Amino acid sequence: MEIPWSVSSTALDAAQAAMVALPAAGLPRMLARFAGKWWALIPPISIVAVVYAITVLPGVADGLTWLALIACPPLAAIALGWAMHGARWWYALATVPALAAAIHWNTTLGGHLCALLLTALSTVTLARLLAGVTPRLLLKLGVVAMAAADAYLILSEQLQKPNAVLVGAAPAPSLPRLQVAIVDPSSMGYGDLFLAAVLGAIVALEARRYRDQLAIAIVLLVLAVAFDGLFLWLDSLPATVPVAVALGVWKLVRRLRRREARRSPPAGAT
To answer: Is the pLDDT assigned to residue 238 strictly greater than 50?
Structure first.
């Protein structure tokens, strides 16, 4: 069953914005030794590598859809049990009925929403881990670089064909496609959700309070919905661009706060 395009597109925008609000901060001590600057290359390289791999070898899309089916449910369970705000270990059990529903109602709106839940939550875990092992400045540059690469590939029409192959790939007719977020008739790439989660993980590390993270999530939702207006002229849009703009908004907010703090006299000063 399809719903109106504007509704489906806004639903995906809301899912992307939710990825900003969900990630918590921190890294298990045993993983701290893996920290390094090269992790910042993951966001931009991931989109370029996938596009050109599918262009050269379309069968790569089949491997990616199986990888997503295998990896997303446990990553989503880790998000519910650890990686997101308010996580509890028993929340992870919710991924079992969600996966069962995604399989049982694979061709329906309900099944697609359950699949979207698993896909989106998996990005929360990856984003928190990535933010924990990557220098923040370099990770922010990686976010901007991924958005720039996404915009270039779409505007030069190099992304549309491999993306269509990836969206259409399925492990089997009866199994869900977790490598992409689908709310018919619209779809959003895994990378679009992942980059939003990376933004959320960055804000979680830098925010004074959680409501700052919620505010940036709302900023992204407004930007994404406004950005969708370009569909009047374009068939495909780089959904990572609003994420990069929201990152710029967060950077501006932090700069203004630091400036205000320098101007304010210390408590008790006369």
So the answer is: yes
pLDDT of residue 3: 84
pLDDT in tens, 52-75: 999 999 899 999 999 999 999 999
| Confidence (pLDDT) at 1 | 56
pLDDT of residue 28: 87
Would 268 be classed as within a structural domain?
A: no
DSSP states of the chain? ----HHHHHHHHHHHHHHHHHSB-----GGGGGG--GGGGGHHHHHHHHHHHHHHH-TTHHHHHHHHHHHHHHHHHHHIIIIIBTT--GGGGGGHHHHHHHHHHTTTSHHHHHHHHHHHHHHHHHHHHHHHHHS-HHHHHHHHHHHHHHHHHHHHTTSSHHHHHHHHH--SSTTS--TTEEEETTEEEEHHHHHHHHHHHHHHHHH-SSHHHHHHHHHHHHHHHHHHGGGGGT-S---TTHHHHHHHHHHHHHHHHHHHHHHHSPPTT--
Residue 123 located in a structural domain: yes
Answer whether residue 224 is part of any domain. yes
Q: pLDDT tens for residues 168-227?
A: 999 998 899 999 999 988 999 999 999 999 999 999 999 989 999 999 999 999 999 999
Looking at residue 270, its pLDDT comes to 47
Q: What is the rounded distance in angstroms from the CA atom of residue 76 to the CA atom of residue 97?
A: 12
Q: Rounded distance, CA 191 to CA 196, Å?
A: 8
Question: What is the count of structural domains for the chain?
Answer: 1
Domain interval for residue 119: 5-263
- Whether residue 270 is contained in a domain is answered as no
Residue 7 clears pLDDT 70, i.e. is over it: yes
